[in-house]
Amino acid sequence: MAPDMLISLLWTALLQTVHMVAVAGVIGSLIGLPIGIFLATSGRGELFPAPTINKIVGAIVNATRSTPFIILVVAIIPFTRLVAGTSIGTSAAIVPLTIATIPFVARLAESAIREVDKGLIEAARAMGATPMQIVFKVLLAEAKPGLTLALTLTLVSLVGYSAMVGAVGGGGLGDLGIRYGYQRFMPEVMLAVVVVLIVLVQAVQSSGDALARRFDKKTRKN
């Protein structure tokens, strides 16, 4: 394959991958983060005690997380068609990516929030803070570095998931690698796809780590 054609294909596939990861990451995080906050604050004796609902939501989250992604993609094809109007292509791939993101973010957010010192919560309660004030001014503020790392891990995982949807015509770098590198026996295309994926993951991880360190310093200063 000519170098200029390879570069063009890689650029188009990269844009598709970034689009899928960005949209699924944003929508999934906007839904998953509140669920994670609920799971971390709704146990017995916590800020919003609702242990029964907590167990039900937790079970649903666990069930979704335990489903292998490629099986999830196939299982929700009817729902994907309902939402996106098709089961193939970049727009369709965003649907299963988003659904996979929600429980992933929820559990990571729950873990980050539970790591906040319980003494800070008790101190805020003693000063008369309401549960919602404690959530926004104590839990989320103190958990910001952990939440940043959680979202970074989510985006990195989404890059890998986006490559997997290429197996079912989802577009992006995975689709390019399968169609040209595997089906047409072009190892140079497969190698190029792998290199671009590695660079993309490194860029996301490095940016997330730097942002988390910055938030951590601000938290310590405050």
Describe the structure.
This protein has 222 residues and is an all-alpha fold. The chain has one domain: MetI-like (MetI-like fold), CATH 1.10.3720.10. 82% of the residues lie in helices and 0% in strands. The chain is built from ten helices and no strands. Helix 2 packs across helix 5 (90-114), helix 5 packs antiparallel against helix 8 and helix 9 runs antiparallel to helix 10. The longest helix is centred in the N-terminal third of the chain and has 39 residues, at 3-41. It is elongated. The mean pLDDT is 89.
Question: How would you sum up this structure in a few lines?
Answer:
It is a multi-pass membrane protein. The protein is built from ten helices and no strands.
Architecture in CATH? Answer: Orthogonal Bundle
Specify the biggest β-sheet.
none
Number of helices: 10
CATH topology tier name: MetI-like fold
Order of helix and strand elements from N to C terminus: HHHHHHHHHH
What is the average of the pLDDT values? 89
Structural class: mainly alpha
Query: Could you name the ranges where pLDDT drops below 50 across 5 or more consecutive residues?
Result: none
Number of domains: 1
β-strand amount = under 5%
Rg calc: 20 Å
Taking the alpha carbons of the first and last residues, their distance comes to 56 Å
CATH superfamily: MetI-like
Task: Tell the overall outline.
Answer: elongated
What is the CATH C level class, in words?
Mainly Alpha
Number of strand elements: 0
Helix content: over 70%
Subcellular location: Cell membrane
Protein name: DL-methionine transporter permease subunit
Domain ABC transmembrane type-1: 14-206
Keywords: Cell membrane, Membrane, Transmembrane, Transmembrane helix, Transport
